[in-house]
Amino acid sequence: MIAVLAQAVVFGVAHAYQGWRQVVVITVIGAFFGAMAAWRKNLRVNVIAHTTADIWEGWLKVLIFR
Questions:
Q1: Where are the alpha helices (DSSP H) in the chain?
Q2: How many CA atoms does the CB half-sphere of 4 hold within 13 Å?
Q3: For residue range 37-46, what is the model confidence (pLDDT) as tens digits?
Q4: Which of 6, 12, 48 is CA-nearest to residue 29?
């Protein structure tokens, strides 16, 4: 449990360039992903979810800001 929370904080702080509000959101998401990885003992689903979110975010930004 401590390791999951610690990795969530590190993951969130690593995104500090996005602003502190996003750090809080990303820390919560990181805790969820960490709990899922610990429960499943596998990172595959987390990697796929993170990649999918990044692709959708990039695609939506292109649509909105062009």
A1: 2-13, 20-40, 44-65
A2: 14
A3: 999 999 998 8
A4: 12
pLDDT in tens, 4-17: 999 999 999 999 99
Quick one: how far is CA 29 from the chain centroid? 5
Cβ neighbours of residue 15 under 8 Å, at least 6 residues apart? Answer: 22, 23, 26
- Give, in order, the Cα–Cα distances in Å from 55 to each of 30, 35, 52, 58: 18, 23, 5, 5
**Domain map of the chain by residue range?**
2-65
Q: How far apart are CA 13 and CA 20, in angstroms?
A: 8
